[in-house]
Amino acid sequence: MRRRLVIAYNANTGLLAGASDYVHKLISPATYPCALCALTYGLVGMRRPWRDFLASTGLPVVFHHRPDFRAAFPACDWPLPLLAVAEDDALRLLVGAGEMASLPDLDALIGLTRSRL
User: Where are the chain's structural domains?
Assistant: First the structure.
């Protein structure tokens, strides 16, 4: 069984989408649709505490944007963003979109994810 951490962002992929997301986070962060991106990324990249936490899990990490997550897990209709554990092709939700949106900061996300792994 191949166990891995799945991270799915509520964002599109590609250079233009990335540039649009960057501007959106800069101009109107409160209306940015991806709570996971807002918690784990600053304006110049992934936040170091998040990167360190992911490395500490000992699990391979698979990052998805909305289109490739839906293609990889077509039967999964959970709202994005989300954190899940995949074992083969089965997903177990760790942190869903609604819960993620209510987290106050990155430390809360790390603590919650750690407790559920």
Answer: 3-116
